[in-house]
Amino acid sequence: MPEAQPLRPHDPRRLGSYELTGRLGAGGQGTVFLGAAPDGAPVAVKLLRVQFDDDDTARSRFVREAAAARQVARFCTAQILDADVAGDSPYLVSEYVPGPALSRQVSREGPISGGALDRLAVSTASALTAIHRAGIVHRDLKPHNVLLGPDGPRVIDFGLSRALDAASAVTSRAVGTPAYMAPEQVAGGDVAEPSDVFAWGATMTYAATGRPPFGADSIPAVIYRVLHHEPELGDPADGLDGELRGLVEAALSKDPAHRPTAAQLLLRLVGHEEAFAPASPAPSHRGRAPSRPTPTRTGPEPPAWTPCRPPRRSPAQGTATRRTRRTRRRRPR
């Protein structure tokens, strides 16, 4: 997280049992403060922009979603520690990770490459695997939600988007950031684990190239490219190459069924080639979008479809053929 800034005059000084000591940032979901737990440990406290009013059902749903988020394994994530929705200032408390967001690091220092890029890929795939295993869909994975802590990358804000939906957030904006949203998400379809895998591919592309795979200009233009264009992964010589490039291309498939799972990504990244086999990427040229591979599934899985065969022509179609009539040789009498 960025360094804490002084509290502003209208900022709260305490939320529940947590003393607030600085401001870490603000976004569409709320404002994040640096706080101190009762035992003095530093924590991140997010004051949420939601309104429950008298909707007890929404409060209960929010509590359930927050409780599920607390069950996510702690490795490679910033653990959810506490949540309070009883008062007029609902908030979530999570582990404080001292370190910059991936978005800030890349904008300041440039793209990531080599072993650092591989470690980032493994850590974020591990985090998604743990999040999905807990039955949660992140729904807003992006470089801003990946913190580069002293002990390695950590994914934050998992499960928060669904919890805010349950709480009837006052904002009407779409959950997620278009440059990192899957086609089914920007189209208003079902958002499930494959959508997070797509966001992982887009995040890795940003980390390796310094730009999202579908651009970062106007929202309508980005959404159109997400739906209809192939991703721009840059020249392999510039960073995103080899096996990781093939996995990113597979993760960015337009069809959710063609994407690997987070667990398959993790296993493949640590050397289990049988977990998932992306197609070999075609040579890429600068300025030209590489073709999207069709992943090859391993194992004795029967195909869900049969190839189309050209229809047979009936004798009545096409050019009529002449029929020859056999004649018998007459024997001489």
Q: Explain this structure to me?
A:
By secondary structure, this protein is α+β, with helices and mostly antiparallel strands. It is 29% helix and 13% strand. It has 9 helices and 8 strands. The strands form 2 sheets. Strands 1-2-3-4-6-5 form a 6-stranded antiparallel beta sheet, with helices on one face. Strand 1 (14-15) and strand 2 (18-26) form a beta hairpin. Helix 3 packs antiparallel against helix 6, helix 3 (114-133) packs antiparallel against helix 9 (262-269) and helix 6 (193-209) crosses helix 8 (242-251).
Task: List the defining traits of the structure above.
single chain; 333 residues; alpha+beta; Transferase(Phosphotransferase), domain 1; 6-stranded antiparallel β-sheet; two-stranded antiparallel ribbon; 9 helices; 8 strands; 13% strand; globular
Can you summarize this structure?
With about 325 residues, this protein is of the alpha+beta class. The chain has 9 helices and 8 strands. A hairpin with a 6-residue loop joins β5 (about 80-85) and β6 (about 90-95).
What is the strand content?
Answer: 5-15%
What's the CATH H-level superfamily name? Transferase(Phosphotransferase) domain 1
User: Helix fraction?
Assistant: 25-40%
Inertia-based shape: globular
Rg: 27 Å
Order of helices and strands: EEEEHEEHHEEHHHHHH
Figure out the total of helices: 9
Q: What order do the strands of the largest sheet run in, or round the barrel if closed?
A: 1-2-3-4-6-5
CATH topology category name: Transferase(Phosphotransferase), domain 1
Q: What is the number of beta strands?
A: 8
Write down the oligomeric state. Answer: single chain
Q: What is the arithmetic mean of pLDDT? A: 81
CATH architecture: Orthogonal Bundle
Largest sheet: 6 strands, antiparallel
**Count of the domains:** 1
- What are the segments in which pLDDT stays under 50 over at least 5 consecutive residues? 168-173, 281-333
- What structural class do helix, strand and pairing data support? alpha+beta
Distance between the termini: 112 Å
In CATH, what is the class?
A: Mainly Alpha
